[in-house]
Write a structure and sequence with these properties.
Layout lengths: L3 E5 L3 H17 L9 E4 L2 H10 L4 H9 L11 H11 L5 H14 L6 H7 L13 E8 L5 E4 L7 H9 L8 E3 L2 E5 L16 E5 L12 H10 L3 E5 L3 H7 L9 H16 L3 H4 L3
Parallel strand pairs: 1-2, 1-7, 2-3, 7-8
Antiparallel strand pairs: 3-4, 3-6, 5-6
Length: 280
């Protein structure tokens, strides 16, 4: 089928729930997203990408969201939200915007780094070391604003990479790895679809299509890969899903409805993917 990449974007609690629904809906309708040669995960996508490649079926990820399980302890205050927005929206230049966000993250009075690991531990109980399949986990250098994708050859554990990818600026402290401090991989691009460059087929699931600030939309990144000859399928929340998800991606009570809406979208798009992503 040619090389294929599965890109899983960030989306906090609610967006992550929607994403598990899409994954389960795809599989239930005959398209297996785990057939990808590489999985690229950002933030929530890093968590679920790691769990998929650890052998947890998409159906189980989905059912746990419907049941209200897999909740992460992430309480965001109004002050944190305002500081995040001030940093991210303070420049029209994408690189400066990310660096501003990094400075805010480094200066923020948050809890210890161990808080990140403790919050994520319940979501990673079935995940061990890096899988045999290729998994790339994104994070952003809080000092320079540069994006990096960690993999099995990066000299860090999978849990460390996922923690760095999920370290929401201002809310959680940047995670120290490889002599640097890292924040949420979705700080500049929520899905990082451009990292799938070079693959013939790209399936990108982006719960939040664009980061806060002057950054590239997921559709723009998908169009660039398409122009280079890749066959790209981008799945973002449709109107029904957006209504189910609401505007606040941290509202735990919205996860079941978001997962259901995602499942419906996964089923709907599966037919167009059958030739490449057949579950048979």
């Amino acid at each position: 089928m040619g090389s294929a990449a599965l890109v899983l974007g960030g989306g906090a609690r609610v967006g992550g729930a929607w994403m598990t629904g899409v994954l389960a809906g795809l599989y239930d309708a005959g398209a297996d997203p785990t057939r990808a040669d590489v999985v690229i995960g950002t933030s929530a996508g890093a968590i679920f990408g790691a769990r998929l490649l650890a052998g947890e079926p998409a159906s189980e990820l989905y059912e746990r969201q419907l049941a209200g399980a897999d909740s992460v302890d992430l309480d965001v205050t109004l002050g944190q939200t305002l500081r995040f927005l001030w940093a991210a929206l303070g420049s029209r230049d994408p690189e400066r915007s990310v660096r501003r966000l990094g400075r805010a993250a480094l200066k923020a009075r948050t809890g210890p780094e161990s808080d990140v690991y403790e919050a994520l531990e319940p979501l990673l109980r079935g995940v061990g070391d890096w899988p045999d399949r290729v998994l790339r986990i994104t994070a952003v250098d809080a000092l320079t604003g540069q994006l990096k994708d960690f993999d099995a050859d990066s000299g860090v554990t999978l849990r460390e990479a996922v923690a760095a990818s999920c370290a929401v600026p201002v809310v959680w402290p940047p995670v120290a790895l490889a002599g640097r401090r890292w924040m949420d991989g979705g700080s500049g691009s929520t899905a990082n679809i451009h990292l799938a460059r070079g693959h013939h087929h790209v399936l990108a699931i982006a719960p939040i299509p664009s980061a806060v600030g002057p950054h590239a939309h997921a559709a723009q990144q998908a169009a660039e890969l398409t122009a280079e000859g890749a066959h790209v399928t981008l799945v973002t929340p449709d109107r029904a899903a957006r209504r189910a998800m609401g505007r606040d991606m941290t509202v735990d009570a919205r996860r079941p409805a978001a997962a259901l809406a995602g499942h419906a979208q996964g089923v709907a798009v599966a037919a167009s993917l059958a030739a490449v992503w057949s579950a048979d």
